[in-house]
């Protein structure tokens, strides 16, 4: 604690716990033990009623303002859910990525750019130990 350096946090928390226990026992027994009982018994906090499981739900990952988010839609009717999903997908169209311009070796797939000049080369060795000459 930043307050009075003479206050021991452990002793203080033990005293609070002991006093709370005494008050709970007094309320349970109906006796006040010299302490004033609350005028009205404490009500438990109102809990939110949990919602039932939705018969139809769908999760979709979207890019919103440059961030990937997960959206969960729930409904009691599948047709209505699909209509909502369609509207949501129309609102956030898929961003098209430019086609990859990397040339492909006819046998081994993607080629690498040459570091010694312009062009591309196949980075795979053949069974005899020589390099593939795919261009």
DSSP helix fraction: 25-40%
Structural class category: alpha+beta
The number of distinct structural domains comes to 3
Quaternary state, please? single chain
**Tell me, what's the shape?**
elongated
The number of helices is 2
Summary?
This protein is an alpha+beta fold. The protein has 3 domains: about 1-40; about 55-90; about 100-135, no CATH class.
Task: List the topology elements.
Layout: H1 9-29, E1 56-64, E2 67-75, H2 78-91, E3 104-105, E4 109-110, E5 112-113, E6 120-121
Antiparallel strand pairs: 1-2, 3-4, 5-6
Which key terms come to mind for this protein?
single chain; 135 residues; alpha+beta; two-stranded antiparallel sheet
Written overview of the protein:
It is elongated, with a radius of gyration of 35 Å. The strands form three sheets. Strands 1-2 form a two-stranded antiparallel ribbon. Strands 3-4 form a two-stranded antiparallel sheet. The protein has three domains: 38 residues; 36 residues; 34 residues, no CATH class. The N and C termini lie far apart (72 Å). It is an alpha+beta fold. 26% of the residues lie in helices and 19% in strands.
